[in-house]
Amino acid sequence: MNRIQTLQTLFPSSLFGHRLQEPCPATPSALKMRAPARRTDPPTPLYKASLPHDIPHAASAAHTVTMHITIDADNAARLRQLAVTVCGDSLSSIRVQPIAQARRMNVWLCMKADALDAVMSAIMRNLPCAQFGRFQTI
Q: Computed from CA positions of residues 115, 120, 126, 130, in that sequence, does the dihedral angle turn out positive or negative?
């Protein structure tokens, strides 16, 4: 007994008002008739370069962005104060993690996307040794 007969036995056609058909017939004639799928969009590159228009600061104010920054340990308090002053209520969280025998710190600032430009420019002006990492939209 094949699959269709089994299904028709379990679910008689009188219940649904139509016959069950094979969803994907595997006969050689059916396979020949199918056209291969064609891609209309260009292939995506393996590595997408981060261009200025790709950075999430162009997103609407409703989006939350996490910004990764690496700084010297001496500047951690200064960065925190700067972020709180510039962002205000747009800043949702700050995560600090020491690295390299606590000489440097990883800092993640989680804020609304509309405050991103102001915070980035303030950090670049006041902490030139800061290294910006990945930006993630949440």
A: positive
Quote the CA–CA distance of 53 and 78 in Å, as a whole number: 29
- How far apart are alpha carbons 15 and 26 in whole angstroms? 27
* Whether the Cβ atoms of residue 108 and residue 95 lie closer than 8 Å to each other: yes
pLDDT in tens, the chain (138 residues): 666 666 556 555 545 555 555 555 555 555 555 555 565 666 555 555 555 555 554 444 468 999 999 999 999 999 999 999 999 899 999 999 999 788 899 999 999 999 999 999 999 999 989 999 999 998
* Residue 101 exposure: Cα atoms within 13 Å on the Cβ side: 0
Which amino acid would we find at residue 85? Answer: T
